[in-house]
């Protein structure tokens, strides 16, 4: 399936045809649509103001939002499995995630219109994404990535200084920046870190969070658009939601989580005929036969505290509001 995606994306890129794409973490079921075909397929997106729909100005607040996370005991078993692999030298950074059952009086469509985020996607009433994290962007034959690692409750006294001086968070962020630099070097040259560990603020339905990101830049070949499918596939899965070393860590987290992630922690985005803008599929609600599930997680290192990591996973279950 990924090979078909690559061929189609390359074709659209060469012909400068705008398209939207959605790629799953396991690379088993990537989707690609011409922008002109998205609405009839019940697909709506908003990527930094580039949208295919008219925004609803009469929005209602989220009327009910209850969460039912997995038990700490269940989380701890998977946490211990990953730490065991770290102690054995098989991985040194791994992203552990789980689904949390949620109940709300709002439909996915209503939440999509109400949520505030840089990257939003409503896909056929099957899933909803309101991601704060860019995957890659292009501009003037350059490619940019903005890995996000480090989250803290803004109400904690001195929160900004705490998150920026935390040794575990700093080491984790450094590792991801190095990983993304190496990834971008696969498809570009002259890699530079333009900004390192800057803070963004996210207001949610129940709290305000501070998150830490960096900006990494590379220089693309001329006419890179004709191989856009290869560019995207070469960078997957996103380093910030897998770990390092990437290939072995993906195997470890698959054994720890025991279920496919599907489109969660994959990527989605648009090509406007000239440039690419895409997001990591985090802050993600999935519509299943058993109800709605919100997926979340965080990066683990050998210095991670299980209770803190569990709380971070739970704290990331939210709807961002203005």
Note down, in words, how this protein is organized.
By secondary structure, the chain is an alpha+beta fold. It has a single domain (2-56, 66-315), classed as 4-Layer Sandwich (Anthranilate synthase). It is built from 8 helices and 18 strands. The strands form 2 sheets. Strands 1, 2, 9, 10, 11, 12, 13, 15 and 16 form a 9-stranded antiparallel beta sheet that branches. Strands 3, 4, 5, 6, 7, 8, 14, 17 and 18 form a 9-stranded antiparallel beta sheet that branches. β9 and β10 (142-145) form a beta hairpin. α1 (2-15) crosses α6. The longest helix has 21 residues, at 167-187. It is globular. The relative contact order is 0.23. The model has no long low-confidence stretch (mean pLDDT 94).
């Amino acid at each position: 399936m990924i090979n078909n995606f690559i061929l189609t994306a390359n074709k659209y890129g060469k012909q400068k045809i705008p398209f939207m794409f959605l790629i799953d973490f396991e690379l088993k079921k990537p989707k690609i649509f011409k922008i002109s075909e998205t609405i009839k397929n019940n697909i709506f997106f908003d990527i930094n103001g580039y949208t295919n729909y008219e925004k609803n100005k009469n929005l209602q607040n989220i009327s009910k939002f209850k969460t039912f996370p997995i038990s700490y005991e269940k989380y701890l078993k998977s946490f211990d499995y990953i730490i065991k692999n770290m102690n054995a030298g098989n991985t040194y950074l791994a992203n552990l995630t789980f689904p949390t059952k949620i109940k709300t009086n709002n439909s996915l469509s209503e939440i999509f219109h109400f949520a505030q985020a840089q990257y939003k996607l409503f896909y056929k009433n099957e899933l909803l994404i309101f991601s704060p994290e860019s995957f890659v962007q292009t501009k003037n034959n350059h490619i940019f990535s903005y890995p996000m690692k480090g989250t803290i409750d803004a109400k904690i006294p001195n929160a900004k200084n705490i998150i920026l001086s935390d040794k575990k968070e700093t080491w984790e962020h450094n590792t991801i920046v190095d990983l993304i630099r190496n990834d971008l070097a696969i498809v570009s040259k002259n890699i530079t870190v333009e900004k390192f560990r800057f803070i963004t603020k996210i207001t949610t339905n129940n709290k305000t969070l501070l998150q830490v990101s960096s900006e990494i830049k590379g220089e693309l070949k001329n006419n890179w658009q004709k191989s856009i499918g290869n560019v995207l596939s070469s960078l997957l899965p996103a380093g910030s939601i897998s770990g390092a070393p990437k290939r072995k860590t993906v195997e470890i987290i698959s054994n720890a989580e025991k279920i496919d992630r599907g489109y969660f922690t994959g990527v989605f985005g648009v090509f406007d005929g000239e440039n690419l803008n895409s997001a990591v599929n985090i802050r993600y609600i999935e519509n299943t036969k058993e109800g709605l599930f919100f997926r979340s997680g965080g990066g683990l290192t050998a210095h991670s505290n299980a209770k803190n990591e569990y709380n971070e996973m739970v704290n990331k279950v939210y709807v961002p509001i203005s």
